[in-house]
Design goal:
Helices cover 48% and strands 11% of the residues. It is an alpha/beta fold. The relative contact order is 0.14.
Length: 334
Amino acid sequence: MSTALSGPAKQIGEQLYQGSNAYFDKINNNGGINGARVELLVADDGYEPKRAVSNTRHFIYQDKVDALFGAMGTPTSHAITPILERVKTPYLMPYSGADFLHHQPTINVFNIRASYYDEVREQIKYLVEELKHSKIGFLIQADEFGHVVESALIKSLASYNLKPIQVARYRRNSNDIDSALKLLKSSNVTAIALVGTYKPLAEFINKAYQLNFSPDYTSVSFVSSQDLFDRIKQPSKLMVTEVVPNPKECDAYWCREFIKDMLLAKIDEPNRLHFEGYLNAMVFSSAVKRCSLPLQRRCLILQLNRVFREDKKINSLFVNKTDQNKRIIYRSVF
C-alpha cells in the first residue's frame, strides 16, 4: 500500500490504512486466511507521483507482493500505470475514480469506488436541477486528478447545454489558492465545483466568505469530507458526493461490524475513510478465502468479481437495488 502518510493530504492515507489494518488484524488474530497471515506493507508517498513509482517498484521487485492494495490518488495511479502494464500485478481498490481505472483499463485493476463521472453527474444535477444554477465555475487541482474530474464536469455540464463560466487552478499539495479565488470571484459565478484535498479547499471556502463571496459548492469524495467539514469555519453550503455510507448512520451488517472492530482498534471517531479502507480489506479477504494457496492472480480477480455478485451483505452496501450495474452515490451536505 503506497499512500500519503505525510504532507497536506496525509489524513486521507492514514485513515484508509487504519481501516484496512484493523480488518486485517482481526483476520490474523483469528488464524488468517486459509491458515496464512495477511501482511499489509505500507510506504509513504506523500501523494507525490515520483515517490509512488519508487514505492511500487520496491513492492514488486524487492518484496514480491501478491497485489498492490488501497493505493491513494489519481496522479500516483497514473504514474505507476506503465509499470503495471508490464508486470500485471493486481491493482486492488485504489482510492481514485479516474476514468483510466474504470473504463477499458490497461492494467489488472479491481475497483470498489464509483467513477468520478458518476459522482460529478450527481453534483451537476444537484446544482442545475435542484438549485437552478447556470453560472458554474471550477476550482481544479492542477494535475492528473484535476484533469480527469474537470473532463467529467465539462461533460456533465454539456448535457444541460452549459459550459463553465470560469476555471481556476492551484498546485497540488499547496494552499496557494489566492489567485484562483480572485479569478472566480471576479467571474460572478454562483456555484463552484471543487476538485482537490481538504486543506486548500477549506482555505478557499473560508477566505471566500471573508471577501463576501458565498457561492454554493460541490466536491468529489476524494476530498475527505469530514476533514474538510472540520476545517470550514464560515457558514457555507457544500455538497460532497460519497461512495460508501456513513457508518454511524448505517444499520447494514458490515456497518455494525466496522463500528465494533474500530472500538477494538481504539479508533474512537471512525469515519467514511476508515470504513472504505476496512471494506477494501474485507472484500479482498472474502475473495482470497475462495482461492487455494499460493495465491494466483487469475483466481484473485475472478473471485473478487464473484464476491460482488454473490455476497448479499457486501452487495447491499455498494449496489443500487434499482439498477444492479450502478453504484450508489451518497450525499453529504454541510
